[in-house]
Design goal:
Elements (H helix, E strand, L loop, with lengths): L1 E5 L11 H15 L3 E7 L4 H5 L2 E11 L2 E10 L7 E6 L15 H16 L8 E5 L6 H7 L11 E5 L24 H4 E2 L2 E2 L1 H8 L2 E4 L2 H7 L7 H6 L4 E3 L26 H16 L7 E5 L11 H12 L4 E6 L3 H14 L3 E5 L3 H10 L2 E4 L9 H7 L3 E5 L2 H6 L11 E3 L4 H15 L2 H13 L4 H13 L3
Parallel strand pairs: 1-2, 1-6, 2-5, 6-7, 7-10, 10-11, 12-13, 12-15, 13-14, 15-16, 16-17
Antiparallel strand pairs: 3-4, 4-5, 8-9
Helix pairs in contact: 1-17, 9-12, 10-11, 10-15
The structure holds alpha-D-glucopyranose.
Amino acid sequence: MEIVHIAAECYPVAKAGGLGDVVGSLPRYQCDAGHVAKVVMPMYRTGFLYRNAWDVVHKGGAALGHSWFDYTVIRERTNLLGFDLYLIDINGLLDRDQVYGYDDDTERFLAFQVAVVDWLSRWEHRPDIVHVHDHHTGMIPFMMQHCFAYRHLASIPVVLTIHNAQYQGVMGWERSHYIPAWDSWKRGMMEWHGAINPLACAVKCSHRVTTVSDSYMQELRVSSNGLEALFEYERGKCMGIVNGIDTEAWDPARDPYLEHHYASADPERGKRSNKEALCGIFGLDPRKPLFVFIGRLVGEKAADLLPQVIGDSLHHIGRRMSFLVLGSGESVTEARLESLKDFGRSEYGLYLGYNEGLAHRLYAGADFLLMPSRVEPCGLNQLYAMRYGTIPVVRNTGGLRDTVVDIGEPGGYGITHLHASVGDITHAVHRALQLYADPAATASVRSRIMELDFSWQASSDKYIDLYRTLK
Ligand code: GLC
């Protein structure tokens, strides 16, 4: 089967979050299973572009509203990522260092989508599936079905995967002329609550919709930033498929970012050495249990609660544990975490920014990973943590609910809490400390989580089964 994935991110080309990890690994597993999976994404100006060799495969042009733009499609020459990787270059719009965060993001991603559909419409053959991811590619199914110039693509089945429904790409109707001449009878397909809503449009126009866990799919019908009724109405074509992880890139026995390697058969010594190295960098005491938070410092991840959780824990439970935070995001949270340094002293470390290598070292060196997310469609960090023998302390929501079982349950291996509140998280920290006080119990949980199978294999097969129902 030939599957064309279209997305704004793909690791290691460009990544802002978990979407990049998924698009960088799922296609490889699909290729390994004998399919032809391709990835099409914008050509940002990231290091990956300059380090690798490319062939130009197509040059074309299209209109975004009243302005014409030229685009170029290039393909990575060596199959470096295990699948065909295509980048779309549009001068003046996509040639930026960052993936998101520009005032003209709407125009950038609309031009990208127009270029992709225009290029697809010129292929001499028809792929079996077009698989779009999140709202940045959400207008593609509409364009394939309702733009006059591209209607011959209408019979290609489209699957939409929602990695995060908080972001929907909403824009006003004054931008509707950006979409190449379209059937105005189909205006309702684009619309939600009086505006053009690319995520809603993709839900309506795609043949199947998946989210990255079952629980998140159910939650969307109750809470999805205004789309609840749509998810309820379209539930027949929606399903959850939990993400996997790339177990080659994330392997503590071989991880090039780690100084000390270890495997599930005997993780204790390796973890201890990694912890000592990490604590050395941040001036922490390696004898104390280490809690880490890795991720975007935004409300969705409940990062705004961290300063108080850390402060309260050190103050009320006592200086019996250490905390390390790695991430960047909302400036208020960054400032509060920064100002905690004085009080936190040798029990608290902070790295503001994104650092892939340091993240790997945190997973390896930590005892517990905090993930109190208010919303978590799947969550990959808890899966990476478990692979590295770090016990997840997570809120019982979305993909966290589907992948972490509380130690109080039969066969449980993590610590879960109900609410994203300072009280609940601090209580979970307390429970983690109780577990840590029993080294044999901790070691047994550690070995168990390292052996859980969260690889892509099963999930990748589920996508293939889903595609088959559409052929
Ligand atoms: C988004 C979600 C995260 C999910 C990831 C990959 O970043 O917030 O929960 O794991 O996408 O699907």
